[in-house]
Amino acid sequence: MPRRADDRSISRRRLLGAAGATVAASLLPPSAVAAAAAEPAVDYYDKLGVAKIINAAGTYTYLTAAVMAPPVQRAVAMAAHHPVRLKDLQRASGEYIAKRLKCEGAVVSSGASAALTLGTAACVAAKGNLKSNEIPLQARERGYEVIVQKKHRYEYDHAMLICGVTIREVGSLEEYKSAFNERTVMTNYFNSAGPESEPGIIDRETWLKVAHEHGVPCHLDAAADVPPISNLWKYTEMGFDLVCFSGGKGLRGPQNAGLLLGKKRLTDLALENDSPNSDAVGRGMKVAKEQMVGMVAAVDWILEQNDEAIQAESMRRIRTIEAALKGIPTVTTTVNVPPVANHVPHLLIKYDPATVGIKPLEVAAKLRSQKQSIELSPATGVRGRIEGADENTIVVGVWMLQPGEAEIVASSLRQVLKPAKA
């Protein structure tokens, strides 16, 4: 049924009224703005009934990764007050970060996975001299390929596939050398699944050398590989054309941000395939002004830290927890530092569940359900997830604990484990 004239009039009046209210709010005098700013902040977690947790696991996305470093929080809050031209901010932030991290070019992305997509799109564009609106269709029609080791296939393959490429698996150096052809646009190396993880994997240097012998750019996925801090320039200095990092892990930046670092000709092409360009594979991978500024602040913050201090604080937290567990029958503790990703101390608590009377997975459930909810590492009670851990092991990731939380974790673990069977 067509709408009546008075319906249209009412709708128009309502629309103008809403618009007027918005304009009025934007034209508040400075005193009113200052008064509003002075009002106490609303805790929307409490308002929504969402429980806060103590993160004794690590920088996992499902646990909202890291808490932003205090200078990053301040930078994000300040950036929210002013609009800017987004492309100006993209350019300036990229130039600043590239200079600080000793590489040619940089792009603030909406996470490491988005950086992998933008890097793939850049390599597709470079290979075929394609515009952003020709990806992914032209990549698919031309049969473009990305070469990946079979043992480096992972759930983030989708980040490349949405650019229209197919993935060509190789299982040996000989297969790798013979896999290159006129359709190859890029190779991808998953850093934490490198040669340190298991034998039979082509090492970074060899992988990179072969790619460059064939004139093909090489991307390195180093999403979770800070610390050490020097990794932020180590791999681009090795010659990798593109390297991605997560912003919300060891960098302690916004969780919904990341970095794509590398050769400027490729990072420039990545920007052409990024938001706010409408007809681009990265259009939905929007990074707000607050997140861009937050990543600049995160880079500034991490470069003021040092690996030794990070390690020392992690070990202090571990010793606090170990001290609380002394005297509990069968309990032994060791420290594991993964070789690449999440390269920080993790506490492994091993014991005999038959003696103590509770299994590690039951401990995790109890700590999760208590009023001060604690999340342990998902490696708890699982064999093979982290070296040295098995079904009888509690794994505590201490590096995302906030001040005072190591003591809470220590006390909670003791209360759960102490009532040993006679």
Automatic annotation (TrEMBL):
<dbReference type="InterPro" id="IPR000192">
    <property type="entry name" value="Aminotrans_V_dom"/>
</dbReference>
<protein>
    <submittedName>
        <fullName>Aminotransferase class V-fold PLP-dependent enzyme</fullName>
    </submittedName>
</protein>
<feature type="domain" description="Aminotransferase class V">
    <location>
        <begin position="194"/>
        <end position="335"/>
    </location>
</feature>
<feature type="signal peptide">
    <location>
        <begin position="1"/>
        <end position="34"/>
    </location>
</feature>
<dbReference type="GO" id="GO:0008483">
    <property type="term" value="F:transaminase activity"/>
</dbReference>
<keyword id="KW-0808">Transferase</keyword>
<dbReference type="InterPro" id="IPR006311">
    <property type="entry name" value="TAT_signal"/>
</dbReference>
<keyword id="KW-0732">Signal</keyword>
<dbReference type="GO" id="GO:0004125">
    <property type="term" value="F:L-seryl-tRNA(Sec) selenium transferase activity"/>
</dbReference>
<keyword id="KW-0032">Aminotransferase</keyword>
<dbReference type="InterPro" id="IPR015421">
    <property type="entry name" value="PyrdxlP-dep_Trfase_major"/>
</dbReference>
<dbReference type="Pfam" id="PF00266">
    <property type="entry name" value="Aminotran_5"/>
</dbReference>
<dbReference type="InterPro" id="IPR015424">
    <property type="entry name" value="PyrdxlP-dep_Trfase"/>
</dbReference>
<keyword id="KW-0663">Pyridoxal phosphate</keyword>
